[in-house]
Amino acid sequence: MHKERIGVKRLLTGFLLSYISVFLIPLLLGIIIYGETQRMVKKDIINNNMLMLEQIRDVVDGRLKEITKMATQLSLNPKVSYFSNIGTLADNQSIYYNIWDFTRDLKSYTVTDEFVSSFFIWFRKSNMVITPNTSYRLSSFYGRYFSFGDMPEQQWHNNILERYHQGSFLPASPIFFEARSYTAITYIQSFPLSSANNPRGSIVILIDENTVKSLIKRICIFDTGWAYIADDAGRMITFFSKDAQKDNYPRTIDDVQMGAFVEKNIEGKNMTVVAAESSFNRWKYVAVLPSDSVMSKVNYIKSITITTIIVSVILSIFMSFYLSYRKTRPLKEIIQTLVELFGFPERGNNNVYTYVKNRIKDIAKSNQILENSMRNQAPLLRAAFFDHLLNGQYRTNGEIATVLSHIGLDILEQHFAVLLINTLQYGEEVNCNILRESDAIRVIVRDIITETPLNGKSYLHYIDESKIALLLCLEAQNCETCITSTENFIAQISRKLSSQYNIHTVYGAGRIYEELVDISCSYSEAKQVLDFKSISKTDDILWYHEIPKTEHRYDYNIDCELRLMNYVKTGNKKALERVLDQIYGENITKRKLPMTTIQQLMSEIHGTVYKLSDHSTEDQPIQEISNEFPDVDSMFTYLRSSLKSLCDFYSQTSNQDHAGTIKEIVDYISEQYHNSDLSLDVISNRFNTSPSYMSQLFKDKTGDNLFSFIEKIRIEKALNLLLQQNLSINQIALMVGYNSDKSFRRAFKRVNGTSPTLYRVKIKEADHCYEMK
């Protein structure tokens, strides 16, 4: 392969060094970053616990504020004031009713805060206790329905109830209340609020300790850590630890720095203490974390990092070799393809990149020449398109859309019309001077049309030496607006031509249509307008619908008949209905034709039906069957129904005809693939259809582009020929329809992803391996 002549062997070394450098730089940066990461991980763990502590503090503060608000509302309740003034309970029915009514009010407080487990109110004067469920005498309440740990009744009465409490909290303690035992934090508020020397009773609210602990459990304290909440006096409110022997831990820790963390030696263990303080009640929220557990994650990250670095280095070296080989292989194939196309470089010039760059420049230059050639052909293609469009040679909008895409036009407007401009005076003799003057006038008209604004787009097409067709693509929502916009457009053009160049032109416009496929009808109408103006000598723009209609002639010309037949044959029932409505409106509604003329019109339409129908069926002439219908509408309805039935027939048989046509096309390509002149134009001429219609039909029915299908057939034949080692690449190229081996190589590479030479080598190697086995 003469690899040394173009330096292919040095490619692998260059890629290998590049990939190793790319992989090693991130590894070195990773080692540097690891040191900082190790410090940040510990800080993040502690900060996360600090953030969790602060969140728990904020949640608990919010709940405690709600409890304080609840106690304040109860203290100010008029019924609380009422019962606080009642002495010994008498056997009074109204008092018992008031107690029952008050318990109903208290039940609404039990659902206001999920922290509140239950509560009761003690009234000093009557020695009565009222709960949300019932009421008790104090003598029977404590011990039977309520108890506070192991505290005797007298001690509980003297130390808790009799004292004044301004929103006091008691640490978590075992509670028995109304047949339920649990640990609760007790909140006490004496009332009235301003009766420090003589309180009339107390509101006692019980908070389930498990509710508070459920918040503390969110803190990551590991297996040997703990967390607690202490009040401003240092009393432990609640405590949590995963260790069952939690009583062995100290209850509180002194010298804790709020809002930060400190390292402490607690009972011979290194612990990290994190603390936060409440601004609401000065409570302290403390988490004690074992330092070894905190650092275990850091150490684990360290071991993972070192292992990852080692594995990454090994993988980097392996991947460097693999990627270098993978990147070099397609480049070698590209170089091989370029060598096959352009040959080896001159000796002494063995730089592979310079060789590839120069060859790509050659390809780009050839491609630029091809693009320039295609660009020069674009005006001719557009002129041919407009010529076919105006003369009604396109059957469907789909066929038109295909051609538009091919020539690079995008027509999306809603209304279309043709405007014909005559640049020569009627009756003027044509000579060389007149023709030269007409050419100059056409250039001037083109420039003025280009610079004149229009609510839409306009496309100019030269019909002959004196006529210019202007395809108007209008964006207005209705025909009236389109007519107004067009007349303003023509008025500006006429005024500029007259004032600036003393040029007088004649304008004729066909009707406005909503389908681009109907534009041939508008063109035909515009020609009739110009013919009429040659007689009437009018100077302003004239529309087809403005031509005076004679009462003894009907409007059903050859263009209209061809358009109607085209819609029937293509199965376009919607467009067929539109044309029939136009014929009926133009001839029956607008014109007062005599019955004999109408019969002639119906006879012509019936002739069109006969042309479209199967000739083996015998239809009666319209003169005879007209007697069977009572009026013109019945005759027209009969013809409309006949045409719609034919439209359905053609639509049903179209798929069958197309299937047969596609099979014939495929068979023709399979027979003629070796012909280098085989192309879309040749095939369309062979089957008597337009190239655009042939391309669209083949694409719709097979899903393949016609050019791609021809190429695929040729390459399939070439694959079989490549098995014959006595045939050269150039011979095979000529045998399958390519004019040169270069174009064949490009096509083969495009279809199979490799060059024909490499494909033949692989086949030969595979055969050799098979023989060895």
Assembly state of the chains shown: single chain
The dominant shape is elongated
Structural class call reads alpha+beta
How helix-rich are the residues, as a percent range? 55-70%
If strands are numbered along the chain, what order do they take across the biggest sheet?
3-2-1-7-6-5-4
Percent range for β-strand residues: 5-15%
**What average pLDDT do the residues reach?**
80
Total strands: the figure is 17
User: How far is the first residue's CA from the last residue's CA?
Assistant: 28 Å
Main pleated-sheet profile: 7 strands, antiparallel
Number of helices: 23
Taking Cα atoms only, what radius of gyration do you get, to the nearest Å? 50 Å
Low-confidence runs: 1-5, 615-623
